[in-house]
Amino acid sequence: MRLDPGVFKPWKFHFRFSLLNYQIILLSHDQIIIMNKVTTYFRESYKELLEKVTWPNWLQLQQSTMIVLGATLVITAIVWMMDFVAAGGLNFIYKLF
């Protein structure tokens, strides 16, 4: 299988000079395409967060926080009770032997 020179050109590179760390970075054509895709992803994600996401107001945020806090306390109490019962049961079994 022969590669078409018009499709695969590893000798084409892009030079970029970074002023922050004073390094010259050598990027291939494929790396540039990947970087463009990553940049596009972050740009579109930022736009979505600003324009499409419905953020809760202060009252909704407080209500949701109280619900989560209450559920956390209830589940903590249930797990503590299960642990207490299991420890008591095991201590009873250990005392038998």
Strand content: 5-15%
- Averaged pLDDT: 79
User: Helix fraction?
Assistant: 55-70%
Amino- and carboxy-terminal Cα gap: 77 Å
Task: Return the structural class.
Answer: alpha+beta
- Largest β-sheet summary: 2 strands, antiparallel
If helices are DSSP runs of H or I spanning 4 or more residues, what is the number of helices?
2
Please state the overall shape, judged from the principal axes of the Cα atoms.
Answer: elongated
Number of domains: 2
In total, the number of strands is: 2
| Helix-strand sequence | EEHH
* Low-pLDDT residue spans: 13-18
Radius of gyration: 30 Å
Largest beta sheet: strand ordering? 1-2
List keywords for this structure.
elongated, 2 strands, 2 domains, two-stranded antiparallel ribbon, 2 helices, alpha+beta, about 100 residues
Question: Could you describe the 3D structure shown?
Answer:
With 97 residues, this protein is of the alpha+beta class. The protein folds into two domains: 13-51; 56-97. It has two helices and two strands, in the order ββαα. The protein starts with 12 loop residues before the first strand and ends with a helix. Residues 13-18 have low confidence and may be disordered.
